[in-house]
Amino acid sequence: MEHSSKYIEEAVEQMSSLPGIGRKTALRLILSLVKREPDRVKRFADSLIQMKENIRFCSSCFNLSDDPLCTICSNGNRDHSTICVVEDIRDVMAIESTQQYNGVYHVLGGRISPMDGVGPSELRLDELKERVTAGEEVREVILALSATMEGDTTNFYIYRSFGDHTVNITTIARGVGVGTELEYADEITLGRSIMNRTPFEMSLSR
Question: Could you say which architecture CATH assigns to the domain 64-204?
Fold first, then answer.
């Protein structure tokens, strides 16, 4: 559907390109912006530009950050001997919301999925191994990937890659349902899954 204004049409086109936003929702949001005071719209637009220009990946864990190190990795009160491996930045946010974990993270940027053309080299697996073996005194690596076939494949690959290392490899308890993305698990269930994590070897015999 074409709109009476080419500017609205272009704004709707750009807004609807975002995940989960269809053209009807995009139009509703754009019309809401049209009704706002110009200075509020400008602040909104400026905040998006500032975010895009200044946000970066943490040089250690690859979480989003304003600085070279994110606020988690730079926090001396966190347990840096424990690394929780997740697929996505949204998983960090989900786990942090439980307030049940005080270690640090490693964001892989996805999971092994041959069907999608994603192999180990497309993920930050080498960086994970370097963190563990570079003398950071890491004692535990928690595998907190989604309960999917691809997540299980990635878990096993990581486990095998540390076969010659003394670090403890654990996995979150299966309170998170099979096929569930971590970010969609409720806080209580996810928190319990982290607290009740088990040695990864135990999952191999199931």
Answer: 3-Layer(aba) Sandwich (3.40)
